[in-house]
Amino acid sequence: MYDLISELYPICRSITGDGVRRTLEIINRHVPLTVHEVCTGTKVFDWTVPREWNIRNAYIRTPAGEKIADFAESNLHVVNYSLPVSGEFPLHELRDHLFTLPEHPDWVPYRTSFFRESWGFCLSHRKLMSLKDGMYQVLIDSTLKDGSLTYGEAVIPGRTTDEVLISTHICHPSLCNDNLSGISLATQLARSLKTRQLRYSYRFLFIPSTIGSITWLSQNEDRLSRIMHGLVLACVGDSGMTTYKKSRRGNAEIDRAMMHALRHSGQAFETVDFFPFGYDERQYCSPGFDLPVGCLMRTPHGKFKEYHTSADNLDLVRPEFLADSYAKAVAALEILENNRTLINQNPKCEPQLGRRGLYRAYADQRDGGKEELAMLWVLNMSDGRNSLLDIADKSGLPFELVREAADLLQVHGLLGDHAS
Ligand code: ZN
After folding, report:
1. For 207-234, how does the pLDDT look when each residue is reduced to its tens digit (9 = 90+)?
2. Which residue range is the domain that position 265 belongs to?
3. pLDDT at residue 77 above 60?
4. 304 and 328 inside one domain
5. How far is the CA of 48 from the centre of ligand 1 (A)?
6. Based on the domain organization, do 129 and 155 belong to the same domain?
């Protein structure tokens, strides 16, 4: 995952353009993607697909001839979606187009002008302070013209057409935690799910934030009823603790699965209720859809000082934190894959487990009889009203233990499938 981040890091992405296409080409080497192009001007609910932005070069040349805010050095130097510019400006005029972070004088901010036509440069505050009066030569060799919005989609089929949606935004340029970390985690999840027998079908979306999810939703409205669970992945590579933002419903199965996985991870974590800003969960959880989609993060957007700056770089994200986020996402998906509601076939008093070898099977284990406890919980609660996840939560036992107990009891005919 870290290698993929390193490979994607230099590319100048935006909500449209060749940087997105190049990114999808690289992801496609790991997960076969269907790449969609949606024409500029397409109406998507209350929005319109914007003109496509591409950039080749940009810099400012000081009166002394020094090249500063050079796009070739970092794509963050140019305000993303800047109009093309070529000309000379006195410093006092140029200043209106320069953005810095006085509180972090060596960092370069990340700025965009997606839905308003303007141009600008981002640079370190230290560099800005060093500039002397005079005429500055400015070049932004960009184009903003009719084209398309590009996004990638991968479907990994399971036994049913019920879907789990995994969505991640691909519109940020050289920023690692937000959101090359989400891209690489989604890619790795897709790679590993591809090799498995699955209950659910998994739909992965690699989309520009906001306009991408709005576009996808508007073009797939007739299939949304298939989405049973969903996760938005963002900011999953930093050292902070895992944060799970619940779906708008707040008690969807994905919310409960994710929280169960985190509670049993042995690590500190935070859960937060849905709020209507952040990433694409805003669109999936808009009232007209209210899909069961939560958001998995470590330190949330805006809560880490490197957020939307040049310091969100290859040092901020680490392989071990990516691996930890991956493990937690997989743990939650395992719960979704295996959660079910069963019926006790012998509900009048406890069945005699010893006679079936179910006590003896564990007699010499020293784990406090947790397996037996799990069987008793499953038998008692399997009245058709409690899923295995309900039972795991009520008993405080890990889902995996409850599921193993249920599998064993089912093999012995003591549990039957809930006729649904
Ligand atoms: Zn962002």
Report:
1. 999 999 999 999 999 999 999 999 999 9
2. 2-50+148-338
3. yes
4. yes
5. 21
6. no
CA of residue 213 to ligand 1 center, whole Å? 15
Residues 316 and 275 in one domain: yes
User: What is the DSSP secondary-structure string of 49-74?
Assistant: PPPEEEEEEEEEE-TTS-EES-TTT-
Q: How far is the CA of 279 from the centre of ligand 1 (A)?
A: 8
pLDDT band at 364 (very low <50, low <70, confident <90, very high): low
The CA 71 to ligand 1 mean position distance, Å, reads 19
Q: Give the Cα separation of 109 and 121 in Å (integer).
A: 9
Query: Among 112, 144, 176, which residue terminates a domain?
Result: 144
pTM exceeding 0.90: yes
Shared domain for 242 and 106, answered yes or no, is no
- Span 275-328, pLDDT tens digits: 999 999 999 999 999 999 999 999 999 999 999 999 999 999 999 999 999 999
User: Ligand 1: distance of its center to the CA of 178 in Å?
Assistant: 5
Which residues, other chains included, contact 179 with Cβ-Cβ below 8 Å and sequence gap of 6+?
168, 169, 170, 172, 233, 234, 235
Counting the structural domains of the chain, the total is: 3
